[in-house]
Amino acid sequence: MAEQKFADDIVSSDLISTTVHELKSPLTLISGLSSMLKLGDFGEISSQQEHYIHRIMLTSDRLLTLVDSLLSVGKYKRDSLELDLEPISAASLVRQVCVELEPLLREKKLTFSVQRPRQLPPVMADRQALYQVLYNLVDNAIKYSREEGRIKIHYKHEEDKLRISIIDEGVGVSQKDIERVFKQFGTSRQPIQAHAGSSGLGLYIVKNLMDALGGEIHVKTLENGSCFYILLPIARQLSLFSGEVIR
Amino acid sequence: MISILLVEDEAPLQNLYRIKLELAGYEVRTASDAQTALDVLDHFKVHLIILDLLLPRHNGLMILQELQSYPDWRTIPVMMLSSIPKVDVNVRDAVWEQLNVVRYLYKPTTKPHVLVDAIESLIERHSE
After folding, report:
1. Local structure of A173: helix, strand or coil
2. What counts of helices (H) and strands (E) characterise chain A?
């Protein structure tokens, strides 16, 4: 209990957040330099050198993921999850996430598809929080996918909720690990070998954000991969005469 | 030859991106702060600006506003390159568009070859 409070205090501290943020530049440099070395931008390298450079790159990418996760946890703990709920087009946020993550999709040669009804109702959510949720889920799907695999986003209108499923063809989540994946440092899936690892904080953040948004998150293990799906309340009360614009 | 102004205050990162862009065949001018960036624009023809959001003294948004004040600079496309995720910057998409920001790149996921890919996609779009 005391350890948990200590950990919470640490991630909530502005000083620590600033220090963590400052780690981004050197790590970006290490990651960038190693990718250039690996691509042969500074001259030819042997296959053994390439192997070790690749490991440096993966380790720095993993640290960058951890830095991002720590900053997110810190931010939401500091702000006590003060959310600004408004009607939002979830599909438009998913598109923004995909643009942001497109380099990673391309790097792993993944096929990305979307299945949705023609009309999608807006959801009631905080833009920043929902973006973070979708970003983490799609990022995870990429991380745990095999090269040249497929990622599917599926939307379904269910009474007063919108279900968004993110389906990957990765390593999946074992039944016994399903309970743990949303806990702090509760990562269980083994990332596909030779790809960036998990910080163990991403799904913990997602779960907390979904609780705050009044939504739900679930995971199903599939024969070939996994399906994470979220349920979000539909913004029913939006009046046609309110003049509000759904961004 | 396409000429790029790279505005990045952290010397090692500036150096890294500059080398990669030069290897890709672009002419690269560099600046570490707003004043130097505006001086470069005064003296050289630039086709694209890659702009860090956090700079000493004046931030990238102030440079964007300054660019809008001059007809010659207003039309130069800008790619933001920042260690702050786009969603954490309180600027709406429509405003980015007005400021002629064609792409917002998050530094930690933008390895040098990803930056080159983004520029090539932009050039392809423009030549269509």
Report:
1. coil
2. 7, 7
Mean pLDDT of the region A94-100? 86
* Ramachandran assignment for A200, one of left (phi > 0), alpha (psi -120 to 50 degrees), beta (any other): left
- pLDDT per residue as tens digits for the range B58-85: 788 889 999 999 988 999 999 999 988 8
Task: Report the residue of chain B nearest A66, measured CA to CA.
Answer: B108
What lies within 8 Å, CB to CB, of B94 at 6+ separation is none
**A63 CB-near residues (< 8 Å, 6+ apart):** A23, A27
Q: Are A110 and A151 in contact (CB under 8 A)?
A: yes
Token representation of residue A156:
């379904």
Average pLDDT rounded to a whole number, residues A177-189: 66
User: What is the ipTM, given to two decimal places?
Assistant: 0.88
Q: Which residues, including other chains, have CB under 8 Å from residue A177's CB and lie 6 or more apart?
A: A188, A189
Among A78-87, B24-33, B48-57, which stretch is predicted with the lowest mean pLDDT?
A: A78-87
Predicted TM-score (pTM) of the model is 0.70
Phi, psi of A212 (to 5 degrees): -65, -30
DSSP-assigned states of every residue in B25-74: T-EEEEESSHHHHHHHHHHS--SEEEEES--SSS-HHHHHHHHHTSHHHH
CB contact under 8 A, B23 and A41: yes
CB-hemisphere CA count at 13 Å for B32?
7
Q: Which one of B109, B113, B117, B125 would you mutate to disrupt binding with A, by most A Cβ within 10 Å of its Cβ? A: B109
B111 at interface of A, judged by CB pairs closer than 8 A: yes
Report residue A240's pLDDT band, with 50, 70 and 90 as the boundaries: very low
**Measured between alpha carbons, how far is A224 from A222 in angstroms, rounded to an integer?**
5
A229: Cβ–Cβ under 8 A, 6 or more apart, which residues? A163, A164, A165, A166, A217, A218, A219, A220
Using alpha carbons, list the distances in angstroms from residue B117 to A9, A53, A179, A218, B121.
Answer: 41, 22, 40, 36, 6
Q: Does B88 touch chain A (CB under 8 A)?
A: yes
